[in-house]
Amino acid sequence: MIAFLLKRATNAAFVMLAVALLAFVIFRFFGDPVEMMVNEQATQADRAELRERLGLNDGLITQYGRFVTHAVQGDFGISYRNQQDVMVLIKERFPATFELVLVATVISLVVGIPLGVITAVYRNSRLANALQLGSIVGVSLPSFVVGILLILGFSVTLGWLPGFGRGETVDIGWWSTGFLTPSGRAALILPSISLSTFQVTLVMRLVRAEMLETLRADYIKFARARGVPTARVQWRHALRNCLMPVITLTGMQIGNLIAFALVTETVFQWPGMGMLFIQAVTFVDIPVMAAYLMIVSFIFVALNTLVDITYAWVDPRLRDDTARTGGGNG
């Protein structure tokens, strides 16, 4: 197990170093930081002094090492546009994105799992066919189209829910939450549904495929032969054995939701990390772009590593294969 953990940690470190190199290239070669930070009245001497203070006259390897060291410490510099510490901006925006992703994940599980079971158990019914057709539509529609349709229907036409903004929030230390206010909870509904649409169809299709395979297993036939109620066989015995792949998929998709929430946040003007990144791209705010890339990549790598470790803990054959591979390479 120790060899497995070391291999996964080493892989994660190499991936993050590669991402750091990409972020450094963006930070160093896309635009001149000095020209973006100084005002028009700055003299050439002022520019030279700032360039020396930023370490831009050092070698590229030295600059890259300094960039990685600062990134590990959470130091990504000052935003060109806001003239604030980048991590301060990230801390302000991260709670909004986290709550949006959290609610979208809950919706995907609460809706996707039952629909997957229904389409598997009643696979030849009209309801199952309709749900399958709906899943194809859900996969095909881009998230921004879903968001616009939701705003048009429930905000503009019916006026039931807010179509933009986060509503009122409550500060708990440095964390701001909309869960504790009615307007904050109402503002979460439409963007969460928009963000979770693809995830719902993904979970539903996975559960359906796993259920169809599980229902043909011998222990399910044995349970039915013993007279166990059909609903208990389907929703307890069969479903329980289908949840591990769903949990794995959900853990890996959380990173995708955080990364691609920027589209949903732009449509609903949601003040999260995605919106911050879009603004950074618009104003060529390189430090914010580099920080966003590093943080989202770290979340991806951390979640995938955690899933691998969980699988290895549940199924010892995986870590045994890793040990044999490592021994063969040696």
TrEMBL record:
Predominant place of localization: membrane
Tagged with keyword Transmembrane: yes
Keywords assigned by UniProt, alphabetized: Cell membrane, Membrane, Transmembrane, Transmembrane helix, Transport
Location in the cell: Cell membrane
Membrane-spanning parts: 12-30, 100-122, 134-161, 186-207, 242-264, 276-303
InterPro entries for the chain: BPD_transp_1_N, MetI-like, MetI-like_sf
Keyword flag Transmembrane: yes
SUPFAM superfamilies per the UniProt record, alphabetical: MetI-like (SSF161098)
Domain ABC transmembrane type-1: 94-307
Membrane topology note: Multi-pass membrane protein
Family: Belongs to the binding-protein-dependent transport system permease family.
Protein's name according to its UniProt entry: ABC transporter permease
